[in-house]
Specification:
elongated, two-stranded antiparallel ribbon, two-stranded antiparallel sheet, 278 residues, alpha+beta
């Protein structure tokens, strides 16, 4: 046989054998992946923000299909994404929470300073220097760690304190993780009164440090018609299972530490010039 023809025949036989081996390997060694994972991944927002508690959208989709995660945790995608996932999974639309970030502090320029901070301009760095420059050891430091963490431009520092635009907030919780003082909490998007103070100091200390801090005077407690507010660790706490949103606590608070939280940016209230605590 002609050597050239022989070489061609050998190559064709080897090619066919290799092809058969690859086909058999793909059949017997294939790792099955539920097609719903890809479908759910496509439904998700694609932000890979980590707000769902997983490394990324693909990991969250896999956890849903494996029954390890609820379907409503993609905050950037919202209700539309959740409904699409439930349709893929064959679920009824469930009662999922609709939460938005709320800064539990109204200090900023209303709060005094113990010293002028000139270091690295982050809240985490400032908090590490003698507890931070703010006269209040519990309040917002105003250096914007939360604003840098937010991928949706939903939180900004205004007059020295972080303010959430709840019309942009998706509830991803990135800001709550970034805040070194943990004063950003997730609350229902519905309009409601909120205690905008996190201080646990006693009244005289709060008075000296901040002009809008809760002094635990108890006026809100005594005047609430539904007994929906109480004092704990020197600060007022609202029991939302009893609160009907009448607003009595907001009007009675002499320090304006209780304010309405709306589904839109709250206006800054009568900020006073920054002052130093001697």
């Amino acid at each position: 046989m002609n050597p050239i023809v022989l070489a061609i025949v050998v190559l064709v036989v080897l090619g066919l054998a290799g092809g058969i081996i690859l086909v058999l390997a793909s059949k017997f060694m294939a790792v099955y992946e539920d097609p719903r994972i890809a479908q759910i991944t496509e439904c998700l927002a694609g932000a890979n923000c980590g707000g769902c508690g997983y490394a990324g959208c693909a990991d969250y989709a896999k956890a849903i299909v494996e029954g390890k995660a609820p379907t409503y945790k993609c905050a950037p995608g919202g209700d539309k994404t959740n409904d699409a996932i439930n349709l893929i999974m064959g679920n009824d639309t469930d009662n999922r929470p609709s939460l938005r970030a709320t800064v539990i502090c109204n200090g900023g320029v209303n709060c005094g300073k113990r010293f002028d901070y000139q270091g690295i301009q982050t809240c985490a760095a400032a908090a590490a220097v003698a507890g931070g420059p703010s006269a209040c050891a519990f309040g917002c430091l105003g250096l914007g760690d939360c604003t840098r963490a937010c991928k949706f431009d939903a939180i900004h520092v205004v007059n020295g304190v972080a303010v959430v635009d709840r019309t942009k907030c998706t509830g991803c919780t990135a800001c709550t993780v970034a805040c070194p003082r943990h004063i950003i909490q997730m609350k229902p998007i519905a309009s409601q009164p909120a205690v905008k103070c996190s201080s646990k100091d006693k009244g005289p200390v709060v008075n000296k440090a901040c002009r809008v801090g809760c002094i635990a005077c108890g006026l809100c407690v005594r005047n609430c018609p539904n007994e929906a507010i109480f004092l704990k660790d020197n600060v007022a706490v609202i029991d939302y299972t009893k609160c009907n949103g009448c607003g009595t606590c907001v009007s009675k608070c002499p320090k304006k530490a209780i304010q309405w939280v709306e589904g839109s940016p709250r206006p800054m209230d009568s900020a006073v010039p920054e002052h130093k605590v001697l």
